[in-house]
Structure formats: C-alpha cells, structure tokens
From TrEMBL:
It comes from Novosphingobium taihuense. This is Transcriptional regulator GlxA family with amidase domain. Keywords: DNA-binding, Transcription, Transcription regulation. Coiled coil: none annotated. The keyword Transport does not apply. Residues 222-320 form the HTH araC/xylS-type domain. It holds the Pfam family HTH_18. InterPro entries: AraC_XylS_family_regulators (IPR050204), Class_I_gatase-like (IPR029062), Homeodomain-like_sf (IPR009057), HTH_AraC (IPR018060). Transmembrane segments: none annotated.
Amino acid sequence: MANIAVLVSPRTFAVSLGAMTDIHARLGEVFESNEALGNYAGVATRLTIAASTGVPVHFAGGMPLPCSTTFTAIEDARLIYLPAFQVATIEHLQAILKAAEPFHVWLARAAAGTPIGAAGASVFHLAAAGLLDGGECAVPPRLAAAFQDLFPRVSVAKTRTLCVSDGPAPRITCSRDWQNGALAVRLLAAGFSTAIAESLALREPPEGDAGFVPNEPDPVVARARTWIRDRFARDFRIADLARELGVSHQGLIRRFRATGGDTPRSYVQRLRCETAASMLVETRRTVSEIAQLVGYRDIASFRDVFAAHAGMSPSTWRRTQQCSQKRPL
C-alpha cells in the first residue's frame, strides 16, 4: 500500500495541512471516475499524519490536530510532506528544531529515494537534516535571515517561491501558503506519476506553478483535453467529442495541432501509455489485463503503441523500471 506521510509540527497551519489531505481526496476522485487509474494504484493509498516531535499536536490557534503517532511509526513512505507551522519568535523556532533533532536523523535516513516537500517554516527541518546542502530553497521572507544564519551552506531563493531540486526524488520547498497545493501536486508527480499529477491539476488547478497545467490558449482544446482525460480508457469516437464541443471533427484536429502539434488520437494514446506504464510498475496485473484496462481490446495493438511511446515493450519496461526502482514516466 502506497503511504503518503505527512509530518506535522506544533502549531501547524490548517491550510497547509489541507493542501495534501485535499489532494489525497481528489486522488480518490480520479480513481473513481476512471477504472484504469483506479486499478493503477488499487485504490490502495493511505495518508498517515504523524508528529515530528511528540503528541498531542495542535493547529495554529490551539485546536487539536488529529494525530496519534510520531514519525517513528512511518515505514516505506512513497512521499513525505511537511506542512507549514506558525513561528512566533526565532527563539520559538529554535526550540522546535531542538526538540525535533531525532526527527531530523530519521528524515535524513528516510530521504533516500523518497520525494520530500516542505512548506513555510518546515523548510528548516529539511535543512537541519542536511537535505538541502549545496542547493537552493524557498523560505518565507521574514525567516530568510535566520535561515541563512543557521544554514549558510544552503542558498535562499531571491525571487522564486517554489524550488524543486533535480533528480527522481526531489526536495521541494515552498515559501508561500497559497502555493502549497502546487507543491502537493508536484510531490504526487514524483511519488506516483506525471499522468496522475496532470489529472489532478486539470481537475482543480492549484494556485502557483504546479508544472502540470498547460497554458492552453484555445479554450476548446482545453475542454477537449479534460473530456478525454475522464474517458480515455473507454470506447469513444473523436467525432462524438467534436459534436459535444460544437466543432467539426477536422476542425478539432486542426485546433489540437495548432496548440501542441499532436492530435486528439495521439493524445488518447499518450494518456493510455502513461497510465499503463504506471500500472506495469505499481501493480501485478498482466500486460494483457493492463492493455484492456487502459482501453485496448487487441493486445498486439497495445504492444505496438506502447513500444512507440516508451521505446521498449511493456514487459521490458516493467522489468527495467522495477530493477532500477524508478517511478514511471
């Protein structure tokens, strides 16, 4: 079961915690509306909220936060998210960091191969664990000077409010609460797949740069992409889509090509292949079962399209990805 671990600190901001709990709920919406995506993860994800210090934990403002365990109970997290918390004074922040020293040791170990995101003051936890050394991160402006004093080996971004490190297991930092949704979408992309992240971002575009919502200049094409994403595993005709949008079949193709160079048919194929690639790694279903779940009745056709998309057969993709323990596409 894929575990999404949320590690909270004293005085956690509800809006920051909600960025991940809400995106997890929307993950369920995606599963329910598309059988292929539902089977991709077996609807087998769980969200665990644990404390970075001791329990009980309270929200900023004093309300109890539903958290009954600590970080020591977290095992094999698919991704880790640290929501922002309230800092009254620098002395208060230093006290939290001191109490969280065992958590920082755990975080450094858990970071191997695991995408981690931190919002607001929680960026200090990543730096204390040594996970940002030599890189750049986004820090709330009022805490930037204190951060630089404590962690001189980490560069503070001057203008960017969302920073993403390179690599398959990125460290994502966010300095503004209103961008926490974008941070959460990026974590889902790194922990699951870009196909899942794009579905979530298109369903409810987050504030800020999530990186998965194309700047679509043609509203008809934007509606078409959303319509296809909700139906790509089913049998349907592009002519039916064109009729629903009030344009001709050829007119829709021309509009697609004008905005991205692909066609509605190639867009459907890409979505099917991205989803199949995820399912090949995340599930034990056979290639034949996956082909049918993503919309192909003919296994030979699926193999041909997948090979053209990924550069290798579905079986080879599964074997190489599982051996390297990389996330799909």
